[in-house]
Amino acid sequence: MTDEADGATPAGTSRLAEAIREAIISGEFAPHQRLIETDLSTTYGASRAAVRTALLELAGEGLVDRMPHRGSRVRAISVEEAIEILEVRQGVEGLCAAKAAERISEDEIAEFRQLRQDILDSVDSGDLMRYSELNRHLDRRIREISKHGVASEVLSRLHAQTVRHQFRLSFQPARAAKSAPEHAAIIDAIVERSPEAAEAATRAHLASVIDALQA
Q1: What is the DSSP letter of 71?
Q2: Residue 97 near residue 142 (C-beta atoms within 8 A)
Q3: Could you tell me the residue range of the domain that residue 59 belongs to?
Q4: Counting runs of H as helices and runs of E as strands, what totals does the chain give?
Q5: Cα Rg, the chain, nearest whole Å
Q6: CA–CA separation, 202 vs 63, rounded Å?
Q7: What is the mean pLDDT, run by run of 10 residues, along the chain of 215 residues?
Q8: Full 3-state SS string of 40-58
């Protein structure tokens, strides 16, 4: 993504949007911070057209505010709004977990068992960055295995808006020690091919996240 022609391709723009998304989620770009197209173009080696398209994509996800004649800024999502989004996610994410439990293959079961161990090991070793990455990977894989297109699309938007709050929570050792077994319970239910248990474990985990945010 070093020349303007490549940066303007759909693939180049998608990679650029992902890079900016990660910077927002990780806190590199703070809430309310202006996102100046010329600066982003220099930072990411992309054309301004590609930057503008990427920002429009992120605005559609609710991560960026586009202000008429004033450019773009990182959208600030309050704790109250994050909780409301999590309440919606309980239903949709529970559905995806149930569908994943119905549709998971033997190879994917082996993958999930390894992922379960990796999640627990990352918390035991205090590697909370790794733990956060594994959580996000688990969320993505559950959506993929569920093969529920509409639910996955809804969740990709909702998750992007709340993950910044959850990212900060995952770096609290006490919180990680509590949530890791919750993720393990979700995995256990999915690999046992129990849709009801998978949905219940997912709802319980998100309810625990809501409690943590409220605290």
Answers
A1: E
A2: yes
A3: 4-74
A4: 10, 3
A5: 18
A6: 24
A7: 47 84 83 92 94 92 86 87 92 97 98 98 94 92 96 83 68 86 98 98 96 87
A8: HHHHHCCCHHHHHHHHHHH
- The CATH number that applies at residue 97 is 1.20.120.530
List the one residue out of 95, 116, 81 whose CA is nearest residue 210: 81
Strands 71-74 and 34-35: antiparallel
Token pair 């219940």 in the structure block, residue? 200
90 and 173 co-located in one domain = yes
- In a shared domain, residues 94 and 62: no
Name beta bridge partners: 64: 74
Residue 152 backbone dihedrals phi, psi, to 5 degrees:
-65, -40
Q: Are 29 and 116 found together in one domain?
A: no
pTM above 0.85, yes or no: no
